[in-house]
Amino acid sequence: MAKLLDPELSGSETAKLGSACRDWGFFQLTNHGVDEAVVQQVKDSAAQFFSLPLESKNTVAVRPGGFQGFGHHFNAPASDKLDWAECLLLATQPVHARNMEFWPANPPTFRHVIDRYSVETTSLAMRLLGFMATDLGISQETLQSAFSNKGQTMAMHHYPPCRRPERVLGMTPHTDGFGLTFLLHVDGTPGLQVKRGRRWFPVRPLPGGLVVNVGDVMEVLSNGAYGSVEHRVVPHAEKGRTTVVVFMDASVDGMVAPIPELLLKGGETPRYEAVERVEFSKKHLKALAQGQGKQILDTKP
Description:
9 helices; alpha+beta; iron; Fe2OG dioxygenase domain-containing protein; metal-binding; globular; oxidoreductase activity; DIOX_N; 4-stranded antiparallel beta sheet; 301 residues
């Protein structure tokens, strides 16, 4: 981020950013500018929450038919591997979308810390989107407005160690049904793997960095210029792994569709059918539940 913000280095670093979004759909962002004290507090809060007895964590358990709260991931019914992850999922932005019943009161600082981290990551996303817009050849305001006030969700995951990792699944291969994802490693335990071609590549977290990836919605907004890539989590045999993930949502006038300015400037034909944001979410969740991996919008013929 420091190079992106440096006038002399911004051009070459923006090109690297664009290349990562096109070729991998993933990158690690260092010197991101998120308050270091807030980052440490978030890490501490996540670690403390998952260390609580199950009875305490279940006070904010997911309710039938809901998605916010504490629970376990769902894997495809046909999966022969055991689910090996705990998750706390919360709607964090806009503020009126929050349901504080599912925000843990223990540890005592949890709610305040999550609120601050939510604001910090929103600001970071807007800064980063400005450079992505430059790479795509559209105005910063156009791309930023697609994300502004569109919603943010936070997920904390804990993957216990497993001495038979081949028999369990941390998280099934999938893509993210949002715009952008920011992943913070609470510890240095690896486990995230990214698919390129037919190979899975392990992500080794950089100290002080955030892992950022392009979601399905961003792929559509960019008319396929940026790619949403399948990824999975493989449990570690000896070490637990805890992460804090922020999903930034996006849409254009309530639709998931290529950005009109991008099509006009490049003289491009839309590669994806426009779909209402709510319908898009339903398709993504259905595909995730069925273990279908990447499920992007219907493409134009």
